[in-house]
Amino acid sequence: QKKDNEYLFSSFSDFEFNFRENPTNQTAVVGDAVSMSCVPPFSFPVQVTINWFHNYQLITPGGRITIDNSGTITFTSIAKSDEGSYFCDATNSVLHATRTSSVAFVAVYGE
Length: 111
Known about the structure:
- There is one protein chain.
- Helix content is 9%, strand content 37%.
- The strands form two sheets. Strands 1, 3, 4, 7, 8 and 9 form a six-stranded mixed beta sheet that branches. Strands 2-6-5 form a three-stranded antiparallel beta sheet, with no helix packed on it.
- By secondary structure, the chain is mainly β.
């Protein structure tokens, strides 16, 4: 039988750092539907919270922006003001750990 500290050590030793899927650069025209995925490391299988950031500001979903349970952000009608850098972070509440994805850039053309 493992002691608590042995279990904790083995949990952290198995902890992965790389996202399975990072957001990718996108090019869109105003009004397009745009989605980006954020799939955290395998070490975040349960009790994970995904947050998205636009130009380093936390995004609050609502209106034309949704974030689903799989970590995908979708703009139903992208606006010029949505242009910029995006990244996500994943927090595992069990391990009290957070990992951050790579940064992607969304270019939006039109008015």
